[in-house]
């Protein structure tokens, strides 16, 4: 069996403990092992700080952009092989695997383009200069300078490629080296991506390190200039935030955690708008077997349309074949691990205390092309809760599988927002409506609870993307339960990796240094 090592301090290294095993969640067959015990993680961080950091900081944004473009191209050259690994280790259909891997390739390329547009600078100006003395003689400027530490990226099991790429793109463009740690259970794709980059000689020493397996004592070695970015469960997020060393030296922590994303249908919508809702809900329930942080978990529909939405969505879900994701006729693969399957089935049982199944068997289904009892399958499931105000568990429990709950609301934007807010902060909400006033009210009501909103109306319904698609130029992250983090969003994505510093002094001198001359009041 393949033993996956870590790439630390500029070389491949293996641990000396009891290895963890990675499985194929369709067949339960073991695929690979990894082990990080005994690795010198303090030395690995030091190597990145002393080799990768200076190299990146000496580069302009355009040069860092070239690095990201080279990474993107090297990964793209191995796209087919990576898709196969994602099918085997992640239980992904080919479509699911492309979503992850192309997302990685595309996000790196989008940040490469951003680097080109930022040009030959090495730090960011923030806003215009401020006149703090008479006649512009004394001014203040704000700059964002790359932090002098390492960006430690701890990723979730569901997007081993995209998670690596989206976080790395932002940190590297900011000028900060990366140590990336994929979730152990699905690490094969991330490991191969780093191997591809090492083989291609794309990243200078210390620019990108890989910890493949358990985190060990990694956080004990963090320093005051390091940054920690995490995606995963709220419990682990809270543990990392409260880590003694993180608190001691004030390491900034960016968290993407659980999220009970909502879809809201306005009253009296055009057919095209309604059709987009049904299409998007189908995508959000079935894609990646519902294992997306942005998947729609709660569906709010005016009370008089609940039956209609259930009928139309069920009709589409009937065509979603569950089974071996390597088969072309299969649309929904297994969950990534036995633990995830167990957690999802337990979650469904908890939801059933307040909601009843209206589509699906609320269990493991009858997957095609798989021996009975084998694999980590959960069948697509639509639940209905008629009293959302009392269905507390639906608003707080993220069942990480192909599961969503439909609920009635009173048709007002404020009524919908009050129920959506019961989720206590989410990554994204999708709103489907054609009345401008209603939409405006819904946006203002929902925005404080979300990092992103998608609005679909009849005029653009055919082109509207499903809300689960995270875009490099738009913010990704959400308040409250969603972790309070913020990633991507174009140049905003560099913020966690840079330090804002106000510089006040001789106006003309600073203007020359910053290349900005217009004072602001
Ligand atoms: P998790 O257990 O929180 O693990 C996420 C990452 O944190 C993994 O890389 C894991 O490494 C690492 N980790 C765990 N304990 C750590 C520690 N003490 N120190 C440093 N790193 C640590 O989450 P999961 O198993 O991936 O998913 C569990 C649940 O989280 C899902 O069911 C879902 O509800 C939620 N989730 C949310 C999102 C989102 O983006 N919103 C994404 C995925 C999952 P190991 O794998 O080596 O343990």
Written description of the protein model:
By secondary structure, the chain is an alpha/beta fold. It has 2 domains: 2-257 and 485-514, Aldehyde Dehydrogenase, Chain A, domain 1 (3-Layer(aba) Sandwich); 261-472, Aldehyde Dehydrogenase, Chain A, domain 2 (3-Layer(aba) Sandwich), CATH 3.40.309.10. Helices cover 36% and strands 20% of the residues. It contains 15 helices and 23 strands. Helix 9 (271-286) links the parallel strand 14 and strand 15. Helix 2 (61-76) runs antiparallel to helix 4 (94-118), helix 9 packs across helix 10 (306-317) and helix 13 (413-420) runs parallel beside helix 14. Residues 154-158, 181, 183-185, 214-215, 231-233, 236, 239-240, 256-259, 293, 340, 343, 398, 400 line the site of NADP nicotinamide-adenine-dinucleotide phosphate.
Key features?
alpha/beta, single chain, Aldehyde Dehydrogenase, Chain A, domain 2, 15 helices, Aldehyde Dehydrogenase, Chain A, domain 1, five-stranded parallel β-sheet, 36% helix, 521 residues, binds NADP nicotinamide-adenine-dinucleotide phosphate
Describe the protein's topology.
Elements lengths: L1 E3 L1 E3 L2 E3 L6 E4 L6 E5 L6 H18 L2 H16 L2 H12 L3 H25 L5 E2 L4 E2 L6 E9 L4 E4 L7 H13 L3 E4 L6 H13 L7 E3 L16 E5 L2 H8 L2 H6 L3 E4 L4 E5 L5 H16 L9 E7 L3 H12 L20 H14 L4 E4 L21 E4 L7 H5 L6 E7 L3 H8 L5 E7 L3 H11 L3 E7 L18 E2 L10 E2 L9 E9 H8 L7
Helix pairs in contact: 2-4, 2-5, 3-4, 3-6, 4-5, 9-10, 13-14
The structure holds NADP nicotinamide-adenine-dinucleotide phosphate (NAP).
């Amino acid at each position: 069996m393949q033993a996956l090592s870590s790439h630390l301090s500029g070389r491949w290294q293996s641990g000396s403990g009891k290895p963890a095993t990675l499985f194929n969640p369709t067949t339960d067959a073991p695929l690979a092992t990894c082990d990080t015990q005994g690795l010198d993680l303090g030395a690995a961080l030091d190597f990145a700080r002393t080799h990768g950091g200076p190299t990146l900081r000496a580069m302009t944004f355009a040069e860092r952009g070239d690095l990201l473009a080279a990474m993107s191209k090297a990964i793209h050259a191995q796209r087919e092989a990576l898709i196969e690994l994602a099918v085997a280790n992640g239980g992904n259909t080919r479509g699911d695997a492309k979503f992850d891997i192309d997302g990685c390739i595309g996000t790196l390329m989008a940040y490469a383009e951003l680097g080109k547009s930022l040009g030959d600078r090495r730090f960011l100006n923030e806003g215009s200069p401020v006149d703090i003395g008479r006649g512009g003689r004394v001014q203040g400027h704000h700059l964002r300078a790359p932090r002098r530490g390492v960006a430690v990226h701890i990723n979730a099991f569901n997007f081993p490629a995209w998670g690596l790429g989206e976080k790395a793109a932002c940190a590297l463009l900011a000028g900060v080296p990366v140590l990336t740690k994929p979730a152990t259970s699905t690490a094969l794709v991330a490991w191969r991506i780093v191997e591809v980059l090492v083989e291609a000689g794309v990243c200078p020493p210390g620019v990108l390190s890989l910890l493949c397996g358990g985190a060990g004592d990694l956080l004990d070695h963090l320093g005051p200039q390091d940054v920690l970015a995490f995606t995963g469960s709220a419990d682990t997020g809270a543990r990392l935030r409260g880590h003694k060393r993180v608190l001691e030296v004030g390491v900034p922590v960016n968290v993407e955690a659980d999220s009970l994303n909502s879809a809201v249908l306005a009253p009296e919508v055009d057919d095209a708008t309604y059709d987009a809702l049904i299409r998007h809900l189908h995508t959000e329930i079935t894609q990646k077997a519902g294992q997306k942080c942005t998947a729609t978990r709660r569906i709010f529909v005016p009370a008089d349309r609940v039956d209609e939405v259930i009928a139309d969505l069920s009709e589409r879900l009937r065509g979603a074949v569950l089974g071996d994701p390597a088969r072309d006729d299969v649309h929904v693969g297994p969950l990534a691990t036995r633990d995830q399957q167990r957690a999802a089935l337990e979650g469904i049982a908890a939801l059933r205390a307040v909601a009843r199944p209206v589509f699906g068997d609320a269990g493991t289904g009858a997957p095609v092309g798989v021996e009975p009892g084998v694999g980590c399958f959960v069948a697509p499931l639509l639940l209905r809760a008629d009293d959302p105000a009392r269905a507390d568990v639906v608003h707080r429990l993220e069942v990480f599988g192909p599961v969503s709950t439909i609920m009635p609301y009173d048709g007002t934007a404020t009524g919908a927002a009050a129920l959506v807010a019961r989720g206590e902060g989410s990554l994204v909400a999708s709103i489907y409506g054609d009345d401008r006033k209603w939409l405006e009210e819904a946006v203002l009501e929902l925005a404080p609870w979300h990092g992103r909103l998608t609005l679909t109306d009849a005029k653009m319904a055919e082109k509207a993307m499903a809300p689960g698609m995270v875009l490099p130029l738009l913010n990704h992250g959400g308040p409250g339960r969603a972790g309070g983090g913020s990633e991507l969003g174009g140049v905003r994505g560099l913020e966690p990796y840079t330090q804002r510093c106000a510089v006040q002094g001789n106006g003309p001198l600073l203007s020359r240094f910053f290349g900005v001359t217009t004072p602001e009041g």
